[in-house]
């Protein structure tokens, strides 16, 4: 802690300038084992998401709204993972896991921005699937490039504003005493609990933003899939119904994992899980999901596999010049 003079109730106090992250484990041997594991996971996350973005750019068959959104989803996953993973990985090799007040606020802001943007983008992708199945003849007209660009811009801008509205009041609370965060990253619920101020307003802002963006996006997804199911029930051919459902399988899997894990992390009663279990859930939500998303879309998607074959064939048959 650094002594910074502050007046509150006409008294001098000491303001926290640094936080201490306890990390995943305090056992040195285990940290040395976890270091290469999580470094490998982070590198795979980068390679798979960057590779998917490049593949979508290179293959003209993937220049459709669904893959346009998927490219931005991969970019979000890269940024989301990068907001937390490098710091966590480097902390495995440190005895003192210190993070400055500003760095902690920045880490939370970026992570929250990307998480909220993913909520909005998953909602946009659900609407895209509804139009593709429920209004196939109008799909090209409805999901034009202009609308797709506006939906992506709306996701990023609304998430940016939501994250800013959350971060500023929470980090403007007064922190004067304990500075130990029982986590491997700057989780806002742990940080607010360290505040010497009344956190009620900040907690209400956190709840309202999470409700409007998180639950609002989830409601759009539920409504879209309700209309999708209604549209599929009108299809007489079983084969066509199965094909329509298959186009939603990857998105539905990503939504289920993202929201299912997110709700288990943030909505469970504090007494029902130990701190170690909280960290395990957070690791899956923050570290593993950005790695799994491109895999889910790639392994279950014939178009992506075919596009990869075309790109590899094109690259291996480039003319050789002496």
TrEMBL record:
Its main location: membrane. CDD domains: 7tmA_OR5A1-like. Coiled coil: none annotated. The keyword Repeat does not apply. Gene3D superfamilies: Rhodopsin 7-helix transmembrane proteins (1.20.1070.10). Pfam families: 7tm_4 (PF13853). The chain crosses the membrane at residues 32-56, 62-80, 101-127, 204-233, 245-268, 280-299. It is found in: Cell membrane; Membrane. Signal peptide: none annotated. Residues 48-297 form the G-protein coupled receptors family 1 profile domain. Keywords: Cell membrane, G-protein coupled receptor, Membrane, Olfaction, Receptor, Sensory transduction, Transducer, Transmembrane, Transmembrane helix. It is a multi-pass membrane protein. Belongs to the G-protein coupled receptor 1 family. Putative odorant or sperm cell receptor. This is Olfactory receptor. It comes from Ceratotherium simum simum (Southern white rhinoceros).
């Amino acid at each position: 802690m650094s002594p910074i003079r502050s007046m509150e109730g006409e008294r001098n106090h000491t303001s926290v300038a640094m936080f201490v992250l306890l990390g995943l484990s305090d056992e040195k041997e285990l940290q040395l084992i976890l270091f290469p594991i999580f470094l490998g996971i982070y590198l795979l996350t980068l390679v798979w998401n960057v590779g998917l973005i490049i593949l979508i750019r290179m293959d003209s068959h993937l220049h459709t709204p669904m893959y346009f959104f998927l490219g931005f989803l991969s970019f979000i996953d890269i940024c989301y993972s990068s907001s937390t993973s490098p710091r966590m990985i480097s902390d495995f090799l440190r005895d003192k896991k210190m993070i400055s007040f500003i760095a902690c606020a920045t880490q939370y802001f970026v992570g929250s921005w990307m998480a909220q943007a993913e909520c909005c983008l998953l909602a946009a992708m659900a609407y895209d699937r509804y139009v593709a199945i429920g209004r196939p003849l109008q799909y090209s007209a409805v999901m034009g490039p202009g609308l797709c660009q506006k939906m992506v811009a709306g996701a990023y801008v609304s998430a940016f504003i939501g994250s800013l509205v959350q971060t500023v009041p929470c980090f403007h609370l007064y922190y004067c005493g304990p500075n130990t965060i029982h986590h491997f990253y700057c989780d806002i619920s742990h940080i607010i609990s360290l505040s010497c101020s009344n956190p009620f307003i900040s907690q209400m802002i956190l709840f309202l933003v999470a409700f409007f963006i998180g639950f609002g996006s989830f409601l759009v997804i539920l409504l879209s899939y309700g209309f999708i199911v209604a549209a599929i029930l009108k299809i007489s051919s079983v084969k066509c119904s199965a094909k329509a459902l298959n186009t939603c399988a990857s998105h539905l899997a990503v939504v289920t994992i993202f929201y299912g894990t997110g709700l288990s992390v943030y909505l469970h009663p504090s007494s029902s899980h130990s701190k170690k279990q909280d960290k395990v859930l957070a690791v899956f939500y923050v570290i593993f999901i950005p790695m799994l998303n491109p895999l889910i879309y790639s392994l279950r998607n014939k178009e992506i596999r075919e596009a990869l074959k075309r790109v590899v064939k094109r690259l291996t048959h480039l003319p050789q010049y002496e």
